[in-house]
Write a structure and sequence with these properties.
3 domains, mainly beta, Nuclear Transport Factor 2, Chain: A, metal-binding, 717 residues, oxidoreductase, 11% helix, single chain, nine-stranded antiparallel β-sheet, Cu_amine_oxidase_C, ten-stranded antiparallel β-sheet, Cu_amine_oxidase_N-reg, globular
Length: 717
């Protein structure tokens, strides 16, 4: 019986083919901390590092760990037990343990940096460790074992090893070959298992599902339905094989998506290239690799193992005084919850918490210039730690660029003043910080967009491939009354399984300082006009309520009970006496319809509401908890919020859950067109003048045209 090649096994990591081309990583079956099988910092021929990371140093208290710091953490842990010196422990994530918030806020450039520490999530002998390493003193200052249920974030080693174990099972291989699939074409994909009760307690497990890549790289469209193996990751053995019988494997024809191998006619006129030119170059500045200055904004941006990209210490300049005003201390996607709607034995466990189970950082692919990011973009690399503690570099992980899409920032034409011909308009130019991550079949693009009027727009765009289910049916007419409840038929032998996406953002809003913010619910209440008082019969009245505790700020959005939601600093007033603040403006959204006692929903309980506000606690950053893999839901945003702490006039964190239901359709096959959802943070402080101060784009035109337009200048927007 032929065994699949290591190259084929490597493809299992959610299709991270580009990652494997970028990094030379050949793990062993028992890859451990000192196994010598770590990632080498080797780039493919098409990628060149723009920064020499080997000598990079931190310049800001929130700068991510450098290559040198990661290597130093590794050296410190070599002498730490249990397991690191012997090679039995593995690192699952390593990131900066950020300094106390008050120290960061008080820090000024030129001051000495606060003590640098690293937080390490590790696994040793089946136990989870949360370790704090002090880089200045060179010692481990804290090692907490199993602080909650669950295990640390998975590593690439975990995924490759799970597939290797499954494919060493003679029974499993026979089931694969019985379906007519060659092992040389096999893609074995470990999938996250969730948590469904005591029978899984004390076992770190992965379920291995298979696909065939015969005649296509789009193996997601060719599932080997009806079969999976459960692997015990501690014992490295298959503990269960489920084989529900053979289901036809969907065809390969029509699944190819690579442009350079397309051979079918294109029934579309050619679109000419579009390029945004900046003759004077971009107008933003990046200092020391992470501090961004643009127009009236300053903020810190960095790559993160779990969140992918973090925006910190965002300040906007007051248009009247010129002083920088604090808006947000920290913002990032805290968790992604993707439950699939098929309760059958082969699919029930598919309910993913992507940020906490695999991490958005390691899954981030290098952004492609001129396709992912426009001309004049600035790129930032990510620096992470591999399971053996060595530093790895993710090139071009984040890009910064100015966006102009022909939109208008504001405009007005006046026709009722005879003595003046007034036509004022301004082009909308914004600054975008972008990161894209390929989490299995799905690709997510995260944009943080900054406007000169103080508004921040956060957009999540989803694309990639569906996770599909094989079926014997080729046409809806064949189904009759046997309609598959899990989703519609989207191609021959292919069911698109209905699923949800919920992305919860951590938004530590610090309006004019961290300590004195409040959450205000602004209600539109319908009032009835007394008979005879007016020709009107009803009107709307605004009433404001200040949330006193965390439960007061658990918000379910409703079109029929409209609110605005403000984070304000009641101690900082405008010249009119209004409190400084920001308003969160939800975009299109969805709510989880799963029962609250459903195991996936218990773990994803942060999707029970669209808005939450909690009292600041530096340990409460990720809505799914510190240890997410196979967690029981005992360390989630829901649990923290139910403590009902006081939040009025305090240091508070706003949480917003962006969501959408996805009912797949035929147009989603074989590749999904991008669908996007967003929300906005809009200022209530005095920044309106910033919009007026924006200069128009002017081009002088010939006098003959001037006469026709009765203008000396023509505004080209």
């Amino acid at each position: 019986m032929a065994e699949p090649s290591l190259a084929r096994l490597s493809a299992l990591f959610f299709g991270f083919l580009l990652l494997l081309a970028t990094y030379s990583w050949v793990p062993g079956l028992h890859s451990g901390y000192l196994s010598g099988t770590g990632v080498r910092k080797t780039l493919g021929p098409d990628l060149k590092l723009r920064v020499d990371h080997s000598s990079a140093k931190p310049h800001h208290p929130l700068d991510p760990l450098t290559v040198q710091e990661i290597e130093r953490v590794r050296a410190i842990l070599l002498d730490h037990e249990p397991g690191f010196g012997s090679g039995s422990a593995t690192i699952h994530s390593m990131a900066l343990d950020e300094p106390d918030k008050k120290r960061v806020v008080k820090w000024k450039k030129g001051n000495r940096l606060p003590s640098r520490r690293a937080e390490v999530l590790a696994l040793s002998s089946g136990q989870s460790h949360v370790i704090i390493v002090d880089l200045d003193s060179g010692r481990v200052v804290s090692d907490v074992v199993n602080p909650t249920s669950g295990y640390p974030i998975l590593t690439m080693d975990d995924l490759i090893v799970a597939s290797q174990v499954a494919l060493k099972s003679i029974e499993f291989n026979r089931s694969v070959e019985a379906r007519g699939v060659k092992l040389s074409d096999l893609v074995a994909l470990p999938t996250f298992t969730g948590w469904f009760g005591p029978e899984e307690e004390g076992r770190r497990i992965l379920k291995v599902q298979c696909f065939t890549s015969q005649d296509t790289p789009n193996y997601f469209m060719r599932p080997i339905e009806g079969l999976y193996a459960t692997v015990d990751m501690d014992k490295l053995e298959v503990i269960k094989i489920v084989d529900k019988g053979m289901v036809p494997i969907p065809k390969a024809a029509g699944t190819e998506y690579r442009y350079n191998v397309q051979n079918k006619p294109v029934h579309m006129d050619r679109i000419n290239p579009i390029s945004i030119e900046q003759p004077e170059g971009p107008s933003f500045l990046v200092e020391d690799g992470h501090l961004v200055k643009w127009a009236n904004w300053v903020f810190h941006v960095k790559a993160d193992h779990r969140a992918g990209m973090i925006i910190s210490q965002a300040t906007v300049r007051d248009s009247e005084t010129g002083e920088p005003r604090s808006v947000m201390y920290k913002g990032f996607p805290s968790e992604l919850f993707v439950p699939y709607m098929d309760p059958g034995e082969l699919w029930y466990y598919k309910s993913y918490l992507d940020a906490g189970e695999i991490g958005l950082g390691p899954a981030a692919m290098p952004l492609v210039p001129l396709n992912d990011c426009p001309r004049n973009a600035y790129y930032i690399d990510g620096v992470f730690a591999s399971p053996d503690g060595k530093a790895i570099v993710q090139p071009n992980m984040i890009c910064l660029f100015e966006r102009y899409a022909g939109d208008v920032s504001w405009r007005h034409s006046e026709i009722l003043i005879p003595s003046a011909d007034i036509r004022e308009s301004r082009p909308k130019v914004t600054l975008v910080a972008r990161m894209a991550t390929s989490v299995g079949n799905y690709d997510y693009t995260f944009d943080w967009e900054f406007q000169t009027d103080g508004l921040i727009r956060v957009t999540v765009a989803a694309s990639g491939m569906l996770m599909v289910k094989g079926t014997p049916y080729e046409n809806v007419d064949d189904l009759g009354d046997k309609q598959d409840e899990s989703g519609p038929l989207i191609s021959e032998n292919v069911i698109g399984v209905v699923h949800d996406h919920f992305i919860t953002f951590h938004l530590d809003m610090d309006i004019d300082g961290p300590m004195n913010n409040s959450f205000v619910k602004v209600h539109l209440e319908k009032q009835r006009v007394p008979t005879g008082k007016s020709p009107r019969k009803s009107y709307l009245k605004v009433k404001k309520y200040v949330a006193k505790t965390e439960k007061d700020a658990q918000i379910k959005l409703s079109l029929y009970d409209p609110y605005e939601f403000h984070v304000v600093n009641p101690n900082r007033k405008s010249r009119l006496g209004n409190p400084a603040g920001y308003r969160i403006i939800p975009g299109g959204n969805a709510v989880s319809l799963l029962d609250h006692d459903d195991p996936p929903q218990i773990r994803g309980a942060f999707s029970n509401n669209q808005i939450w506000v909690t009292r600041y606690n530096r340990s409460e950053q990720f809505a799914g908890g510190v240890l997410v893999y196979q967690s029981h839901g005992d360390d989630t945003l829901q649990v923290w919020s139910d403590r009902d702490r006081s939040i009025e006039n305090n240091d508070i964190v706003l949480w917003y859950t962006l969501g959408f239901h996805h009912i797949p359709c035929q147009e989603d096959y074989p590749v999904m067109p991008t669908v996007a959802a967003s929300f906005e943070l809009k200022p209530l402080i005095s920044l309106n003048q910033s919009v007026i101060d924006c200069r128009p784009s002017l081009r002088k035109i010939y006098r003959s045209v001037d006469r026709l337009l009765h203008l000396d200048w023509f505004f080209l927007i």
